[in-house]
Amino acid sequence: MKKIIKVTQTVLIVLVSALVVFLVLNGLVKRPHFQNTTEPKTTATKKVIKKKVTLTAIGDSLTHGVGDATNSGGYVPLVKKELALQYQTQVTTHNFGVSGDTSTQIRTRVIQQEKIQKGLKAADVITMTVGANDLMHELRNNINNVSVAKIKKASKTYQQHLTALIKTIRQYNPDAPIVIASIYNPFYVYFPTLTDLQTGMTLWNATTQQTIKQFSQIYYVNIDSVMTKPKESILANNKKKQTTLNPYLYTKDHFHPNNRGYQAIANQFVTKIKAIKANWLYQN
Known about the structure:
Layout: H1 2-28, E1 52-59, H2 61-64, H3 75-87, E2 90-97, H4 103-112, H5 114-122, E3 125-129, H6 132-139, H7 148-172, E4 178-181, H8 195-212, E5 218-221, H9 224-227, H10 259-275
Parallel strand pairs: 1-2, 1-3, 3-4, 4-5
Helix pairs in contact: 3-10, 4-7, 6-7, 7-8
């Protein structure tokens, strides 16, 4: 009898303990409520490509297209074609390139010409070639005796002029990304031993890169890497005595790009413009 009582007490203790634990846990852990609960629907916002895109190009002879056998505007129509095919959108271009223009002359045209101002205002993206003529004015009479010190001094002035040009452009379009090309060394294959000349070109490009850092939405495109010494180039004074050649240069002046050169330049522009498509391609 005593054994039965002990067993009963043990069972009761176990049951009471289990009940206490259950009540404690039930109080601490809240049950989920299922009444009138619906998960919020998450909808991904799909970016919509603009039906029409405007590219405005401004600058010197590279924008104008000197050396382009088709006389259609150098790299500009090539960029237009690629963007239209890539994104299935209508691309309108304005080409305001003038051969021989320096940075100050380009700025003067922007200030004086209403058609350029309108073209800038309409632009979704702006491309620019600038700086080569500024440097050429410094090298004009000293191509065989380049002074890096003088180029460095001249680059300070160029930096001021380029800054003023960009600020003027921004008065007419504060938002569109501006894509600025480097300059290249058309003399390299003919004077490969003039290392100071290449140093001067590199310094000039560094000045452009340094200048644009103070602005937002301005991007640098390196065309020097594809134009100065293409793979098929033949340097002067080569051991095989082959004719000196840069296959990307216009044979009439050995300075401006030919069609192959403009295609190489266009490819560099397109790569950069595609990389920043979020800043110009989609509807707001």
